[in-house]
Amino acid sequence: MASSSLDSSRLAFADPSWDDLRIFLAVVAHGSMNAAARALGQSQPTVARRVKALEEALGLSLFQRGPNNLELTEAGRALLEAALPMGEAAAAVTRTAAAYRPDPDAPVRVTATASVTMFLSLHAAELHEAAAPVEIAYIPTRQRLDLASGEADIGLRMRNLPEGTDDLVARRIGRIAFAIYARTENPEAVIAPPEDPTLSRQAAYVADFAKGRTIAARIGDMPIRYQAAKAGLGAAFLPCWLGDADPDLVQVLKPEGDLVEDVFLVMHRRSRSRPNVTRVADALAALFKRNQKALVGG
């Protein structure tokens, strides 16, 4: 048997400890025992000892150890797949606990799509003044972060009121419209989103507009798509507050129907007792109210 293998016939197997699994996940995530030790605030010998203890408890070799690297064995890859949900669950437990005993000085985290976050960034100084002394942390993502487990404090979500939200409170704070913009009124090329047109209303709308035109590029990131349209690459799907304000762009098609979406401000019920979160929420609602005309376009 190779020296890196474990003789399972001589081992009394035991359930692995979570501490050892946590260290195993850290080694995989950081690529080495030294890096994992730094991330965990432990010594490299301690990390190596805990990995060895895990291997002995399982009766498996989890890593193929080379001169300057570690590679997962087949068993190691299988264990990683099984342990990852445990790591995610442990992180969720930590976030949830922190959400119920929040640091009063912690920034209020606001999550929204890239287009909405970009709009907020233009008014960041105004929001900062309205929410002071609270700091606001902006998290641009299309994923719906879990407010219940504390991944964010406020979510700005579009189109429909979230379902299955017994522990969440939501209020409609305005609307936001989207349209096709280009340097000319009859563009020959289109900047399309990368996703399948059947998976997104916006992608389907752009695909229909693109019929008979050249697809110049596929760009998912809205700020980059905007810069490409502004440079003359082709027509792009943009929020009206951005396209209408740019003198270099013209609105090729007016927003209508599904291109005008409701915006909901969503919080967990416990946030009602957190003055910092409610102050930021009120500032966001006021911002949308003052800028509703620009947000829905002309």
UniProtKB/TrEMBL annotation:
GO terms for molecular function: DNA-binding transcription factor activity; sequence-specific DNA binding. Keywords: DNA-binding, Transcription, Transcription regulation. The keyword Transcription regulation applies. It holds the Pfam family HTH_1. It comes from the Bacteria. Residues 16-73 form the HTH lysR-type domain. Belongs to the LysR transcriptional regulatory family. This is DNA-binding transcriptional LysR family regulator. It comes from Microvirga flocculans.
